[in-house]
Amino acid sequence: MKTRNYLIIALSLLVLGTSCVSQKKFKSQAADFNTKYGQKESELKLCETDKASLQKQTEELLKQIDGLNNKIDGLTKEQTYLKENNTVFLNQLQSLSVISNSQAESIKKSMESLGIKDAYIQGLQRSLAQKDSLNMALVMNLKGALGNLEDQDINIKVDKGVVFIDISDKLLFKSGSFNVTDKAKVVLEKVATVLKNQPNLEFMVEGHTDNVPYPKKGELLDNWDLSVKRATAIVRLLQNEYGLDPQKMIAAGRSEYQPLTANDSNEAKAANRRTRIVILPQFDQFFKLLEKN
């Protein structure tokens, strides 16, 4: 009888021990699962933020394209209306024999001119569509190259047919300095790689500051000096380290006079302290198009 009691006690202790081990293992697995779930949830939020930003950029571009297409449609309708009325008017005059042959010929030439203008409008429309496609491709290439950076540090957009790349100064320089940081070189190398693949592009590097007066020390006098020095530092790096053509680059300082927002908070001032790369429109190609037409 005693032996049986001892066996029961031993089995009970064995079951309780096994149960405690299982619970510890389960809690460990649950904690590991929660950690992985949190990581995946953070990654999903980042992807959703990137997707929303791209959708907003695309919507802005589509609105600009719609506005230009509406203007072209209006000109086309006006041209069609004038052509139809001129044709009717010419037929009426000829049937009544109230105009001379030279006058009729003049009106015919006017109608031919309208046809030339119609072809010109269509040519501009095709050029506009091609330019928009090239700008969109450039933006997508830049976003692809810089995809691992946070949105608040770098912003790429198209405004009125011009591509802008805004880079926060906290990525490029230390406070009050114009010496490019090592972290900045990672960003600029990626930008330079995309720009180098488009050798015909010209661009301007602009330095921007907030409205906090620069303390006069050393070779810098004010925010004008600081913004220009930062622009030239970036241009010099793109030329000397990444091989971009210096004939295609312009360095400019904007000081504090083109802010993105009012300098009424630390966050707003941080947004205004930036370096902007502006892809310049190719006016020579546009003038050649006008000469052909």
Please characterize this protein's 3D structure.
The chain is of the alpha+beta class and 293 residues long. It folds into two domains: 57-133; 146-293, OmpA-like domain (60s Ribosomal Protein L30, Chain: A). Helices cover 66% and strands 12% of the residues. The chain contains seven helices and five strands; from the N terminus they run H-H-E-E-H-H-E-H-E-H-E-H. It has helices spanning 2-96, 101-145, 169-172, 182-196, 223-240, 266-272, 283-292; strands spanning 154-159, 162-168, 202-208, 249-255, 274-280. It has a five-stranded mixed beta sheet. Helix 1 (2-96) packs antiparallel against helix 2 (101-145). The longest helix is centred in the N-terminal third of the chain and has 95 residues, at 2-96. It is extended, with a radius of gyration of 33 Å. The protein starts with a helix and ends with a helix. The mean pLDDT is 76.
Look at the structure and give the mean pLDDT: 76
Helix percentage: 55-70%
Q: List the strand order in the largest sheet.
A: 1-2-5-3-4
State the oligomer: single chain
Q: Which consecutive residue ranges, at least 5 long each, have pLDDT under 50?
A: none
Topology as a string of helices (H) and strands (E): HHEEHHEHEHEH
CATH class of the largest domain: Alpha Beta
Please report the distance between the alpha carbons of the first and last residues.
Answer: 115 Å
Main sheet record: 5 strands, mixed
Summarize it.
The chain is α+β, with helices and mostly antiparallel strands and 293 residues long. It is built from seven helices and five strands, in the order H-H-E-E-H-H-E-H-E-H-E-H.
